[in-house]
Amino acid sequence: MRKKGLSFSLAIAFVLVATSLLMAQGAGDISQLARQNLRPYWHVFIAYILVWLILFGWVVSIARRLGRIERGLQGSGPPSGR
Amino acid sequence: MQLTGLRRTGVLLAIPGIALVLLLHWQVFFWVPTEVTMGVIQRIYYVHVPSAWVAFMAFGIVAACSAAYLWLGDERLDMAAVSAAEGGVLFTTIVLLTGPLWARTAWGTWWTWEPRLTSTLLLWFIYVGYLLLRGATDSPQRGKRFAAVLGILGILDIPLIHLSVTWFRSLHPQAVVMRPEGPQADPSMVITLLTGLAAFTLLFFAIMTYRYALERLTVERSTAFAGTPAPSVAGGGA
Fold first, then answer.
1. Which run of H or of E encompasses B198?
2. For residue B230, what are the CA distances in angstroms to B56, B72, B140, B143?
3. pLDDT at site B35
4. In terms of residue numbers, what domain contains A45?
5. Residue A48 lies in a domain
6. What angle do CA B98, B103, B104 make, to 5 degrees?
7. Residue B123 half-sphere exposure, CB side, CA atoms within 13 Å?
8. Which domains does chain B have, with CATH numbers?
């Protein structure tokens, strides 16, 4: 029973010492550091995605307007201009 | 029909454009080395600079076609101008969005009111104004003439944007390729940039051809129905 209590105390002490050592070395900032290091990658991907979304949007917009006019040509009504 | 020819031209321009876009992505993500001081964020440059180039070229087309339209009165020139202006505004939007994504890492801020950024934003406003002005008057013809004058005056902002980094104290990086003493970047970086320039130029002309076909169809159809030209379709749709 006494041996079990000593092991438990040693384990607790190890955890406390290890935690304090890691915190002293700045391990608490690991997630923040990771975010900072990964930020450029995210920004590059977002930039490329934005470029292709905007260009694709332009193509879709033209296709929709062209389709509307072509549908109007098949009907008989005058154009709305929009 | 002439529109069929325009569509075919658009496809012929789009095919090499898309092939070069695929090549550009391979070059950017697998081939070109990472820049030493800025790191991976510098790769935004390969879409940022070609977008700026295409925007300037588009506004050059707007100014040239607007001047010719005011002189000759040919509606086709106005159609070409509005088609180029729409593309120019979109490519300037790309420049204004990708720049801050780079600046957040390089400068620590999304935006600063430094000369090149401010004059580029001004350019965007000028050509958004060009598109809005066309439909802002009672007479479509008068709207087109007013917009043509703005399209010509707006081009004066482009030399200001280009020279702002040398004329004023600017945070924006200086040119590394278009220098009197030749490019200072690694050859693979210059090749990747040239691929981007060619890809974006071809894509712009491919889409602009379709936009011109749309404008032409709108005007021809409304002339056939009512005997008067319809207002431009700029700004409508999706």
1. helix B187-226
2. 28, 20, 7, 12
3. 83
4. 41-75
5. yes
6. 105
7. 33
8. 3-219 (1.20.120)
Which of A37, A39, A59, A62 is the mutation pick for testing B, counting most B CBs within 10 A? Answer: A62
DSSP-assigned letter for residue B35: B
Query: Which residue type occupies B212?
Result: Y
Using an 8 Å CB-CB cutoff, list chain B residues near A60. Answer: 238
pTM for the model: 0.80
pLDDT in tens, B102-158: 999 888 889 989 889 999 999 999 999 999 998 888 888 899 999 999 999 999 989
Residue A8 lies in a domain: no
Residue A66 belongs to some domain of the structure: yes
Residue B232 in contact with residue A82, Cβ under 8 Å? no
The Cα–Cα gap between B208 and B212 comes to 6
Q: What is the largest CA-CA distance in chain A?
A: 98
Note the pLDDT tens digit of each residue in A19-69: 665 565 555 555 665 666 667 788 999 999 999 999 999 999 999 998 888
Mutate to test the interface with A, among B32, B212, B222 (most CBs of A within 10 A): B222
- Enter the tokens of residue B103: 């600046």
Residue with tokens 């964020």: B41
Comparing CA positions, the residue from B138, B146, B134 lying closest to residue B86 is B134
Q: Which two tokens stand for residue B237?
A: 């749709």
In a domain, A64, yes or no: yes
Residue A65 to residue B117: CA distance in whole angstroms: 33
* Nearest-angstrom CA–CA distance, B37 and B40: 9
Q: Does B173 touch chain A (CB under 8 A)?
A: no
Tokens at A24, concatenated: 């002293």
Give the span between the Cα atoms of B160 and B167, in whole angstroms.
Answer: 9
Return all residues near B85 (Cβ < 8 A) that are at least 6 apart: B58, B59, B62, B127, B130, B131, B151, B234
Residue contact A40–B93, C-beta within 8 A: no
Distance from CA of A30 to the nearest CA of B (A): 19
- Is residue B184 a contact partner of residue A41, using CB atoms and an 8 Å limit? no
